[in-house]
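Run: sequence + arginine -> complex structure.
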Amino acid sequence: MSKPINVYSEIGPLKTVVVHRPGKELENLMPDHLDRLLFDDIPFLADAQKEHDQFKEVLEEKGIEVLYLEDLATEALTDNLIKEAFIDEYLSEANIETIEETNEIRQLLEKLPTNRELIDKTIEGVRREELTSLAGVKFENDYPFAIDPMPNLYFTRDPFATIGSGVSINRMYATTRRRETIYGNYIFTYHPRFKEDVPMLYGRDQATSIEGGDILVLSKEVLAIGISQRTDLESIKRLSRTIFASDQGFNRVLGIDIGKERKFMHLDTVFTMIDHDKFTIHPEIETNLKVYTITQAGDDISVTEERESLENLLASYLKLDNVQLIPCAGGNITDAAREQWNDGTNTLTIAPGEVVVYNRNTVTNKKLREAGIKVHEIPGSELVRGRGGPRCMSMPIYREEI
Ligand SMILES: NC(=[NH2+])NCCC[C@H](N)C(=O)O
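>> structure
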């Protein structure tokens, strides 16, 4: 049987992808805690779900198998021991204040009629008002949650990342997203579809952070990884060592330093690959861009700073005569800033030269069409409020070879 995971490019025809339909976790967002939960606004859940369903439909119309993270996580709980271990791990990382609360929440989770409801509840979070053990208790603060929600989970790109036939279970930068990686760990360890034969390339317990939005598989040999607010050069070195040792054919990692900024927290918010020789790019990162090359050197790796422009580096390492960088909004400063903020550069490529984008980024989408790209538009007025676009909302599991 062929391997369950096959991702050797950013652009090979997409066959299988993992998404998460936003759920009640979005109704646990509050203005006072948005910053910490990495949100900029509160989406209207019903509309966010409709938009997400449209995203799924566009993918399914192209014959792409759409898997839901919440289904996979449910199916990974194949027996009671695994389920108990999952609940234990979830509770131990949930930052619950007292033993009484922990015990009551454990009972609440165990009593849920189905494993799917259990998974949904862990994503949604627990309000203090749901716990009878807290009735009448006076708190030092008015924080309403016994367990925080995980509102960012619909950005399935980030907590784990598929590379070749393996998966990097990531160490997330912010506490609020760290628990999301529990699901990936259970899926790739216990789900019948994945449990055999999926090499784990990074671990959630590592000391330095790396997130999937920074990881781009440019070719069978070359990866690009953002050095960003979310991903450290140290993590890239660690991942590179494992990847080179895993003998999958990857022999070069480009570390692209995009600075530590909230507005472009991951490489894929400013740079994506959309065809054999075409990329989207946010003009703001192009000046003074630092790129490092990591390769195998004897028993270890070497890291060297590149001198060439990104364009030349891509052409040379991808063995092309030249490449085209398509600037967000055609490069106009104001339009590019607005459309990048609304994920205009965050394209999901579903086949060479064919992408899914938000309809709101009209200037960029026009430029993509002019460059000969086939563009599928989806609405994203609510989804975008979490600061992520089609690439962030999708984790490819299988791409055909190109
Ligand atoms: N791959 C991406 N660009 N993901 C975007 C994630 C957005 C999310 N609110 C965060 O800050 O983590």
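>> summary
Residues 128 and 139 are 10 Å apart (CA to CA). The domain at 153-399 is CATH 3.75.10.10 (L-arginine/glycine Amidinotransferase; Chain A).
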